[in-house]
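Provenance and format

Records in this collection were gathered into a single text stream. Each protein contributes a sequence line and a token line. The two records reproduced below are adjacent in the stream.
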Amino acid sequence: MARAQRATSETYHHGDLRNALLAAAVELIAERGVAGLSLREAARRVGVSHAAPYRHFPDRAALLLAVADDGFARLVEAARAAMAGIDDPSERLRAYGLEYIRFARRNPVHFRVMFSEELPKPEVDPGDSVPAATTALDLLFEAAGQAVGPDGREEDRPRAAVASWALTHGFATLVADGRLPEEIVGDDEAADALARWVLLRLTLTETAGLPPSP
């Protein structure tokens, strides 16, 4: 932990207080859960006065939203890279899903914050407070809609997107929360193999434009 605290302090002393506070927030949440996050403790870890964070974050909720937005931005970047150069709609959807699950495994703290019940609820549009979340879901909805195919029913496209997200997010949550046996998801290769198996079912279903068989 001392090493992590030095890292955040060094980041600040290079002039990047905002990112240092984000790093400290992730450390705190990893140790104490979302409920354990406070601006005062984040400031202490970075080595600044308790008033310093207010230059960037007016309150705890703003810091929490920034962690979530950073997580979604990272997910978008990874998903776009994974889908780049893939023309087949089903393969694009599968690539998105696999990257979503990988992200949850490699960034469990960000993933939990991104969907935390403690995030302030926007009055109108979630994208108003977490802009990158809208981009992440737009990518998924576009990929799932295309996977239905040109001959699919138009009403199946949003259904396909919701079904895709439900399956992918459910699996990713199990991974992020450590609910799956270590021998199954103990390393990237094993986790990817299981994720591909799950996502194969997803793409077979969505390209048919039909709900799964009972």
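Adjacent record:
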Amino acid sequence: MKVIGIDIGAANTKGVLFDKEKKEIIDYQVLPTEFQPKKVSQIIIEKLKDKNNYPIITTGVGRNLIEHQASLTEITAIAKGINFLSSEVRTIIDIGGEDIKIIKIDNKGKVIDFIMNDRCASGTGRFFANLIKALGITFEEFNRKVLEYKNPSLISHLCVVMVESEVLSKIYQGEEISNVLFGVCLAVAKRIVSLAQGIKIEKKVALTGGGAKNLGLKKALEILLGEELNIPQEPLIVAALGAALSFDG
């Protein structure tokens, strides 16, 4: 049996077509939500179902916006998805467009504990997107420049508005942009690790969500945690995969 898992997020909507019998991903789609979650979800479903009617399982902030056979929380979905991909993972750091989640799971993918940072945008996809836009560079340029750092700058503010001002000020004062960018990533990573102390990180650690594609943030987290992070081939679709895996029909 084939099933479609849909993760309707604030920044992106993701869909996975999964074969339950073969236990494999057949296809997946990722599109920007762009404040049109229902429309974008339907576009993804049409692309995945290819004139067939498959069960639809939803997750994410917009999981109740479209017709579905079942739904589940994003935290449960992420846990199921990662456990399928990498059963040795015990802690997941999920960095989405609007929030950061840290999830502890057992060897079956069951959630043991979790903690979220959903009141402050610092470190989220939106945070970095705004910073990159203010600098007038692309995400690809950001990823290239951030890894050229030698001496990370000390960043005092992580408020979305204040960090832009501080970053621009440091660059205008002559600091290397790579040092400034990695300084931001290091400051964000420290805040994430501090948040994670509430549930005590257990290795191995996976990084999921759009934040997993931020090479500076990945590097900073690896330095602070002292281990190489487990990153899925497509870190954006983990929750959608977990939604599909949850279907019992």
